[in-house]
Amino acid sequence: MTTGYEAMIEVYCRQLKLPGLRQAFAATAREARNTGQDYTAFLASCLAQEVESRRQSALQNRLHQARFPWVKTFDTFDFSAIPSLPKPRILALADGGFVKAKENVVLVGQTGTGKTHVAIALGICAIQAGYRVRFTTAVSLSQELLQAQAEARLPRALKVWDRYDLVILDELGYLGLGPGGPLLFQFCAHRYERRAVAITTNLEFSRWVEVFGDPNLTTALLDRVTHRAKILVFNGESYRFKESQRHLLQEGQGATANSTG
Ligand code: ADP
Ligand code: MG
Asked: Is the CB of 77 inside a 6 Å radius of any atom of ligand 1?
């Protein structure tokens, strides 16, 4: 049964926009009664509930704004599958220190070796550390900037990205960027030493010119992107390929076991 006071608290919490408190006050009050908590301690736990609920919803908001294509974390990453990537070195990045220092991370290696997985996991860690993150692909960002340029609003479009402490640029190198190349360069130059960027690419640096076309521009870009950057090399076979081979092998063994058993 709802008392008059409870109804009032509901109304006040709505007016004051205190969803955490609104949700938790009844249980918190019951707990205070049962444990003989004093008024100050009770008020403190009410406020703590509201603070925690705001922290959670800010986290959910930032996760949503990041537009990750999938949720991938380090919990599901098998470090033993990629020995070129020392686990301590990766986990050292997970505290978001590189975002604070406005440094870049370049994840380079063959397709399927876990670059996007690690980039997303780093992004989620950065969000948990309180940063704003946005995931996009090199092609999609360069198209967006091309469109902005055509509509004479490139400076504004570049500035919109400033609100993100970390931008993850996925899949640089799968497709040439054509006229978008110089704009992606401008994007990286604009963020250089002001905000962090993480880039995943299947191309070693000597081949970036294939994406950007112009050798001078590519040199200038590499200079900025790799200065004080953490370079993570993903050496190995495709994880997916290895996994499917392993399943096939197990099925094969199962079949053999069945036929002999
Ligand atoms: P890349 O971006 O290098 O092409 P992805 O990160 O997209 O590779 O990885 C391909 C798939 O394999 C994804 O589903 C990813 O979660 C999984 N994967 C890759 N490497 C690992 C790993 N070491 N441990 C667990 N899953 C992995
Ligand atoms: Mg990828």
From this structure: yes
Domains of the chain plus CATH, in order, are 4-63 (no CATH), 74-242 (3.40.50.300)
Asked if residue 112 has its Cβ within 6 Å of ligand 1, the reply is yes
215, 86 contact by CB (below 8 A): no
Return residues with CB closer than 5 A to ligand 2 (ion).
116
Half-sphere exposure of residue 94, counting CA atoms within 13 Å on the CB side? Answer: 14
Structural Rg of the chain based on CA atoms? 25
Question: From the alpha carbon of 240, which atom of ligand 1 is closest?
Answer: 12
* β-bridge partners, 199: 106, 169
Please report the pLDDT score of residue 175 as a whole number.
Answer: 83
Which stretches in the chain have pLDDT values below 50? 259-261
Residue 74 C-alpha to ligand 2 middle, in angstroms? 16
- Tens of pLDDT, residue by residue over 89-107, are 899 999 999 999 999 999 9
| Model confidence, pTM | 0.86
22 lines ligand 1 (CB under 6 A): no
